[in-house]
From TrEMBL:
Entry keywords, A to Z: Methyltransferase, Transferase
Coiled coil: none
Name the record gives this protein: Rhamnosyl O-methyltransferase
Tree of life domain: Eukaryota
Disordered: annotated span: 1-20
Organism: Chlorella variabilis (Green alga)
GO cellular component terms, A-Z: plasma membrane
Length: 357
């Protein structure tokens, strides 16, 4: 195995509050007990560690070739022994990563900051989940937040989003978000829906079918670097472009949403529309989302929404759409997060930006 590179933690890494085994701060009067979660048991080393923190992900990425080798043997006894070796390697790597400790204290290792025995210790998960800094969902307690987060991890781990169909086509929207967005479409009755990020076209077909049910016409303009038929990693029963609703309601534009020529083309369409809804679901890197929100959110009509999707990624890494969303809101007081649109389990926490002026 090649030696791992030296890692350093960003200054944002800090110690979370002390928590009880139930996952609720000791000062809280309301405690919803939740079972101790061992992510390595539930999700396996890859998803388990990469879901917990960037530090664990960096450690896992460093020994990824080892994981591929040692876990190939499916015999339970052998696999258990090999996985123990893998976990020891991970602990050694994470123990060497240093970050800032509590105020006035010298730098400590990540494990010292978290106060845990190893990366597979449940508290490694709890410190990530139970800090007020990580209370992302529209709920009242940190335990409720933790329950939804744990379900979100399972939803991702089992790739449920690739087994959801709408009119025979895989539609990768979180079902709770799809329900909320469809209600927004019904309420606003937009004559133009701008979607950045087509993927296989399942969501565009869903929005088109809602426009059809409303019966007032309208158009979905959807943008992507690749054509839907080029998406080979999605197995679907039917193709969206074979549905008559596709030609009737959907305009596909190939290219980057931040391309000036494409933005002008979409803006010209928005200028002619009375009610515009914007959905941003293309690249989720912070820089791209920053550009995209600046270009497309202003196209949303007053009273409508610019929905910045997959802000959940801010919980998994530092270079994320949530940062871009917060920067956008800081300079655009005409928008505010409408958290009433979040039906507990959402991939877009704080991402439903309603234009109020």
């Amino acid at each position: 195995m090649q030696p791992c590179p030296k890692f350093s933690c960003p200054s944002t890494l800090k110690s979370g509050p002390q928590v009880l085994s139930a996952g609720e701060p000791a000062s809280s009067a309301t405690v919803i007990p939740i079972p101790t979660i061992n992510l390595l048991d539930v999700l396996g080393p890859s998803d388990g560690l990469s879901s917990v923190s960037d530090v664990a992900y960096m450690a896992f990425a460093c020994i990824f070739p080892l994981e591929k080798t040692v876990l190939k043997d499916s015999r339970p006894a052998v696999k258990q022994e090999k996985q123990h070796t893998l976990e020891q390697q991970l602990v050694q790597i994470v123990e060497s990563v240093r970050g800032p400790g509590p105020k006035g204290t010298p730098q400590q290792t990540v494990l010292e900051i978290l106060g845990v025995e190893g990366v597979n210790h449940p508290k490694f998960m709890q410190e990530r989940m139970m800090s007020e800094e990580w209370k992302w969902f529209n709920v009242e307690t940190l335990s409720e937040d933790a329950i939804i987060f744990a379900f979100q991890l399972l939803y991702k781990h089992h790739t449920v989003f690739l087994r959801q169909h709408w009119l025979g086509v895989v539609a990768m929207q979180n079902p709770m978000d799809a329900w909320s967005i469809n209600d927004i479409i019904y309420t606003l009755k937009p004559d133009l829906i701008i979607e950045a990020g087509t993927a296989n076209g399942g969501s565009a077909l869903m929005w088109a079918s809602m426009l059809h049910l409303i019966g007032k016409g309208g158009r979905v303009v959807t943008l992507d670097m690749n054509r839907p038929e080029q998406i080979s990693w999605v197995e679907t029963r039917e193709n969206p472009w074979d549905n008559p609703l596709w030609d009737q309601y959907v305009t596909f534009i190939q290219g980057s949403s931040t391309d000036p020529a494409i933005h002008k083309q979409v803006k010209d369409m928005a200028d002619k529309a009375k009610m515009v809804l914007v959905l941003l679901d293309s690249s989720h890197e912070e820089d791209h989302v920053g550009l995209e929100t600046g270009l497309y959110c202003p196209l949303a009509s007053p009273g409508s929404y610019c929905i910045v999707q997959d802000t959940k990624m801010g919980r998994f890494n530092w270079h994320n759409p949530k940062n871009a969303l917060q920067a956008f809101l800081a300079s655009h007081p005409e928008f505010a997060s409408d958290r009433t649109r979040e039906l507990l389990f959402t991939d877009h926490p704080s991402g439903y930006l309603k234009r109020t002026g």
